[in-house]
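Replying to the earlier thread about multi-chain prediction with a worked example.

Input:
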Amino acid sequence: MLGAMQDWTMRITHVIDHAARESGTREIVTRWADGSETRTDWSGIRTDALKMAQALEALGLKTGDKVASLAMNHSRHLVSWYGVAGMGGVLHTVNPRLFEDQLEYIVNHAEDKVMLYDAMFQPIIDKMRDKWTTVEHYICFDSGDQSQSFEDWIGAQDGAYEWVQGSETDPCMICYTSGTTGNPKGVQYEHRSTVLHALAGLQPAAFNFSSASVMLPVVPMFHAASWGLPYAGAMAGIKFVFSAVNDPAVLHKLMLDEGVTDSAGVPTVWLAHFQYCDKEGIDLPPLKAATIGGSACPRFMIERLMKNGTRVQHAWGMTETSPIGTVGGPTWDWDQLSFEEKVDKTAMQGRPIFGVELRTLDLDDPTKVLPRDGETSGALQIRGPWIIQRYLKAEADAADPEGWFDTGDVGILHPDGTLQLTDRTKDVIKSGGEWISSVELENAAVGHPDVAEAAAIGMYHPKWDERPVLFVVKNEGADISADDVKGYLEGKIATWWMPDAVEFVDDIPHTATGKISKKDLRDRFADYKLEG
Amino acid sequence: MLGAMQDWTMRITHVIDHAARESGTREIVTRWADGSETRTDWSGIRTDALKMAQALEALGLKTGDKVASLAMNHSRHLVSWYGVAGMGGVLHTVNPRLFEDQLEYIVNHAEDKVMLYDAMFQPIIDKMRDKWTTVEHYICFDSGDQSQSFEDWIGAQDGAYEWVQGSETDPCMICYTSGTTGNPKGVQYEHRSTVLHALAGLQPAAFNFSSASVMLPVVPMFHAASWGLPYAGAMAGIKFVFSAVNDPAVLHKLMLDEGVTDSAGVPTVWLAHFQYCDKEGIDLPPLKAATIGGSACPRFMIERLMKNGTRVQHAWGMTETSPIGTVGGPTWDWDQLSFEEKVDKTAMQGRPIFGVELRTLDLDDPTKVLPRDGETSGALQIRGPWIIQRYLKAEADAADPEGWFDTGDVGILHPDGTLQLTDRTKDVIKSGGEWISSVELENAAVGHPDVAEAAAIGMYHPKWDERPVLFVVKNEGADISADDVKGYLEGKIATWWMPDAVEFVDDIPHTATGKISKKDLRDRFADYKLEG
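Result:
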């Protein structure tokens, strides 16, 4: 039957075409690693993307071919998002912080043919070049001392190009997850999933983007598609301010100079920003909103930003979810809440936007779907149009037949739809048939002024099955005992959650993305024994 | 190839499921025609929609069958939007203000099997019943004196129902256009087009919906899907306040009592509201935003609402465009504009949201695409995922092979994407090879305090091809001459736009939707002759 409404293939090329047509002169500012600054606009990004698509075809690349990027946030990286998708290719944004064996694995596994990289990562290129068996071309985004420079490369083209057409479900981007076990796994974003995710991301409950928005994304472009910001921003025609370095002094100056209204990043970004402002004795930048995700945002951070007049949007998602799962904007009862209640609400992970469906399963009996009662915690599952079906080259689906994908997170669903994360499935501690959240123990412990970092893991216990042990890194020069820590925890956690032991360590192991590696911690203390 | 991301069929059932799941207790308030008030919530709407879907199946309705509604805005009408789509049916929202022959034509043409109606429209039902050849069942939304009542009808079901699955491009709603010539034409909205349109409608540049929004839509549910508000509102989980009557006193009280933040309607709604507030000596309601569309919003209305602290969103669209084409929210240079400049900008029709593409063609040479220079006016065309492809039962497409649909409007595109409507293609006046906007002439003329209404049409002129004649309805008791009107127009329009004649008439003919019918005016003055 002929359609009543128009066929319109959801392709990323519509996004950049719209931005260039309707917001062509809206600026894209980049502060480069060498301190220089350049300005282009959505029209310029599109023109360069057309040239880049031509340049890729001139290299012999075909539809479905993979192009890797090893780069920070800047306008040329943005060009590559649209240029690669525009010629029907797939952009693989590589995390430069990965370990060497992971870098080797993912580039070979994705079969990347071109490597676009920042000059600052030349040492990585030099080390990896011989190990990457599929990469045929190296292009340097900035200097080009060792490779052809990006500007010269695309500059040889005239931009007279028609975007490649194709299916909505063609892949356009690959991001690898950096799990704590096994090889990284590739998540392939599709044109359709990307467009829907970005469109949903515009809404007030998510990024709240209008043409007046000025966004400085601190979240790297190699992390879960930079949360989809480069696509959503183009749809709304926002102004982007990119920084290729994350030095708080640089970010702070950019925010003031460029009239930045919105930012997005992990909590540590704000930690560094607070320290910078305190040291300099200056105010925080007057942002309208800060989207914070990647890991839990501490209460004091929420409070300080809120007191600064900045709307804090605590978001949850993962590479497998494009990544927006939930975002915490003001709820409808917001005006009736006290400041404390607002902070409580903001400390949770927010509510799912349209498209995302969540449920929690009993940790002991995964056939049992838990009530949304704001109390019962369970294994969090998610499904929807921008949620993973299958990892790249995997032989089985990552989602079950009904579309439910196991997030590996443990959380509580509240009656108003709010998600409250409490732990990771593999880290939650089972004691006497009941569950203890390792994350909540850690969060309580780091509130102690002498505790720099804390990690709780479950250790075998002959009677209770598992009991929590807290590993603590003291602040420099601090002098505290295990009993001091336990005393501090009293009243802050349920009595039966009290760790059986507090052990002081010099350091706690981390993953490539900076998260605590409980796996490595468990390995290190494999012989640890609790007294019965 | 197996998908990397999940298959997820864009169906309207996802919208109501999401609203009930995530915002189940968010209220839907109705003020009925008899003065009573009822309250339900998104969870209640879904439960009733499930029962209604069952009730429709119990009547023998199948996928693709049409259900008509002849109703004002209320919660039961809302239930039917989701209930009909949920059983795979198609809701045909009938405009009760249509003329009898149009009412007869559209219900028979759509082949509606069920008629849902408000008791206040019983006289229409009584008159049309014998003429409607396909309608088998009559259900009354409220009283049910003459037919089964809606509540009894769905109340007989238990709601244990699974939504009908189907294709994204299945139709879900039909709205007929009420053109000035020929029979009305049916526009079929599809599940996919409706979901995309609603998702795009959430963004700050459109309805700006978050869970905190409280919307009283004055635009009827039988007008172009009430601009998609019932879908977008469900996606964001807003509170809806419906009124089955449009009395300004009722609307005003509801806005204050229910904490309404947003409204949407045609300009005359606000005209009546201004008059009411002036008469009562009270302030306008403290709305955050008013979306105004359907016809051009006068400057004084924009000014008054803006001074009231209400963001005015001047929108343009038509039944064939779902209807959002452009919406005028603040542009990125907003803060730098003077109040006058803001009003100027707001008086235009706004900018296309992502998904919508516009162009203008030379009125003399339709092969020539005009520049977006903010000066040249031309025939406006539109394309995108929620734009019509083909009218119901038509034998040819309404859009050209590239998807361009002729809107019949004449407009100017500005470099920043803003659309400025100037006329209708069939009303614009061609004089000596140049075009004169009949609408601008009319708008200038109605600024005269003694002019109640004005309509300009082009009359044959032996030398200039056409010259404008202005037909004027005087205010009661006013005593003005043609020269007075011309004198008033001087300086407000280009000198060569000055009407060759000003004719006073007792009335100007209107269409069923209240627009000036230039066709009828031309017919009435078919023998009119201008002196050469």
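Chain B touches chain A through 67 residues (CB under 8 Å).

Feel free to reuse this layout for your own posts.
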